[in-house]
Amino acid sequence: MLVALAVLLGRFVRVVTRMRGGGSALPGWVVLKLVPDFVARVMTRIQSDHAVPVAVVTGSNGKSTTTSMAVAILEAHGKRVFSNPSGGNLPQGIASAMLTDVTLGGTLSVDAVVLELDEAYGVQLADAVRPSHALLLNIQVDQLNRFFEPERVVEMVRRIAEPAHTVIVNDSDANTRSLGNQFAPTHDVVGFDVVDRVAPDGVYGANAGNDAAKDARTPLVSVTAVDGVNTTLAYAGEPLAVRLPSPGVHYAVDAAGALALGARLLGDEFDSSVAASAISDMKPVYGRGETVEAFGSPLTIVMMKNHPSLQANLDALSETPESLYLAVDDGTPDPSWIYDIDLSRLDHVDVVSGSKAWQWETRLAYAEIPTGVVEQDARTAFEAFGTNTSPKRQKHRTAIVNYEQMMDLRRELGYMEIEGE
């Protein structure tokens, strides 16, 4: 009875939240207040009905995109999949995602589960979720105000993956490669990687004292070439042409991880050409390279989360942005890492906004990159961006924003749906 009440109340909050363009986690927060073990109850019923594989995707960057790719692969093979699409990776986010299809009795009828898990909360969620498969993407410098050191994240990720019998690791990241080596004696460990000539240099890894030497693991999937949104993946030695939802090596690595996970989940049913087509048909995940309409022309939203994600997205730019809006707020509490960013892909910024605007204006000044308007109020700043810019060469504007500013920007433009829908 309590579960039914929680589901009904959660769905009501979901409707209200959607109307306001709010976050996707609030309905789940309400459900968990009424039934704290709601996620564990639903997962237990899923797994007790029949042998449903449960995969978790975790790491510093790329979780949302990789999870969406893996789901697309499974669905293209005719599977019914439960997932927490696009960022709802805390307990309340997963509970919210369950509200879409769960019965009043707390039952979900699916063929597979693929969940994105936050590195910290994933430790407590692993017991409730009981994964059969774990995909470890990378461990990079991220949210030092929250995690302090990458070493702590290595241990968190290890604990998330430990219950699984199959662990899929990014062998181009020293930290996840090391975890794969630790798991090898007791788990089925599968690797994916990017060949040296394609791998980006610099700040993409955060070696936490792990041995950087590669082991003898043969990758199931490798990224062998990247050209904008086009990549070539080698699966079991055979080349696969894939179109990425957004340009960049980091998206190609996400695709390789998703392909490896799909292959392990589907077994003999896996068709690599079907998987490649599923990824190629994907649109960019909510706010991650997504293009929306603004001021009568396209606006590409580039979301940055931390040092590695910003650098990867800057390096993926095919040319210098003609009309550029940059907004960062207190969702990025400590922006000191911006002084290590290579900003050479930029030659100007039209508008700088958010509560961290002046820190960014100072950083840009050190790089001798001219700035136009500096305005902390996001609405005023974005209006100025529309007034002051009129893209001609690229025919579109570009916005580089952190997560919170991305959400505010989409609402400002009238995109009121909840993330992941």
Summarize the amount of helix as a percent range: 25-40%
Instruction: Give me the CATH superfamily of the largest domain.
Output: Mur-like, catalytic domain
Q: Quickly count the domains.
A: 2
Task: Describe the sheet with the most strands.
Answer: 9 strands, mixed
- How many DSSP helices? 15
Q: What does this entry look like structurally?
A:
Helix 4 (63-76) packs across helix 11 (272-280), helix 6 runs parallel beside helix 8 (150-161) and helix 10 (249-266) crosses helix 11. It contains 15 helices and 15 strands. It starts with a helix and ends in a 9-residue tail after the last helix. The protein has helices at 2-20, 26-34, 38-49, 63-76, 91-98, 121-129, 144-147, 150-161, 174-183, 249-266, 272-280, 307-315, 357-366, 378-388, 403-412, and strands spanning 54-58, 81-83, 112-116, 133-136, 166-170, 188-194, 221-227, 230-235, 238-243, 290-294, 297-303, 324-327, 349-353, 371-375, 397-401. The longest helix has 19 residues, at 2-20. The chain has two domains: 2-13 and 21-280, 3-Layer(aba) Sandwich (UDP-N-acetylmuramoyl-L-alanine:D-glutamate ligase); 290-412, Protein-Tyrosine Phosphatase, Chain A (Alpha-Beta Complex). The chain is 39% helix and 19% strand. It has 421 residues and is an alpha/beta fold. The strands form two sheets. A nine-stranded mixed sheet has the order 2-3-1-4-5-6-7-8-9, with helices on both faces. The mean pLDDT is 85.
